[in-house]
């Protein structure tokens, strides 16, 4: 605790009326310690500081409005403790949930995440990558189907490690993390076959990872293994609008359709609307399943049966892979999806536990 007369002597502003930026020396003088002790408190080391002394230093920092210089600390340590995340489609709930897990995983590693959105524009992405490199981030994560790392010379010359975080398969010479999308597709098709479905269509995104996309490969393999013919395929954007358009096409071209696998949740939700508008009952007439397993899939109607990606595991692996040595290039960390059974396929789902809601009635408002 600072002495009362010392605390009272601190002037919040100079002659001009604006507070002068406090320095570490100012904090040390007010707390009655050396500048080295202030540094130990700010940086949590490398030497221990007695609890009472540390409290006195922090009080002095508060009184003076002292803010440590992050750039100076980064220069001394040789690290900014910042990571960059490039997201191509921030309106997709999957990437929103993935970003939240990456923020938590970065925090556990003592890092902070700078998130930039490209909105599927290659020109914007190139400029944002250059900006992140200029900020000397310690690593870059890419959640983007646009990304061609060889096109970013600033990233290469700076020697900043990069990880592609939404890859359902390895990429030569790149650090990648992803879910076994082909295996997930097979899991969902097998589940539909178990429900007696025999004409299973596919709504798949255009311009995705690989040609064909691993989800399409898994769908085809599972149908062959079950002795079933391939159902109709529509290639549409990775969006609700794409799923809606794809659903209309499927209904017009195949009257025997009894199930559809959508390559992401957004497409599945658009597909559900197309089915509802045509009076098609889900799952009685057509069962629907999808890949991703976002929270949105749980709250649409009917709730979607999904192959859920393990986002906490993916996020932790991505952050860890950034810290691996240069020889880690070419490493792919892959995880299995989890089958979550809900009513869109005909399963009986677990009941959702409702959140507590305080309902304020008119009578209650009048009495309060």
How would you describe what is shown here?
The chain has 368 residues and is α/β, with parallel strands linked by helices. The protein folds into three domains: 4-68, Orthogonal Bundle (434 Repressor (Amino-terminal Domain)), CATH 1.10.260.40; 81-160, Rossmann fold (3-Layer(aba) Sandwich), CATH 3.40.50; 181-309 and 336-345, Response regulator (Rossmann fold, 3-Layer(aba) Sandwich). The chain is built from 15 helices and twelve strands. It has a six-stranded parallel sheet with strand order 2-1-3-4-5-11, sandwiched between helices. The protein has a six-stranded mixed sheet with strand order 7-6-8-9-10-12, with helices on both faces. Strand 8 (259-262), helix 12 and strand 9 (287-292) form a beta-alpha-beta unit.
CATH architecture of the largest domain: 3-Layer(aba) Sandwich
Distance between the ends? 43 Å
Largest sheet: 6 strands, parallel
- Shape field: elongated
**Number of helices, where a helix is a run of at least 4 consecutive DSSP H or I residues:** 15
Layout of SSEs?
Blueprint: H1 4-8, H2 24-31, H3 35-43, H4 51-64, H5 70-77, E1 82-87, H6 93-108, E2 112-117, H7 122-134, E3 139-143, H8 153-158, E4 162-164, E5 175-179, H9 181-194, E6 200-205, H10 214-225, E7 233-236, H11 240-253, E8 259-262, H12 265-277, E9 287-292, H13 295-299, E10 305-308, H14 311-322, E11 332-335, E12 338-340, H15 362-367
Parallel strand pairs: 1-2, 1-3, 3-4, 4-5, 5-11, 6-7, 6-8, 8-9, 9-10
Antiparallel strand pairs: 10-12
Summarize the structure.
With 368 residues, the chain is of the alpha/beta class. 42% of the residues lie in helices and 15% in strands.
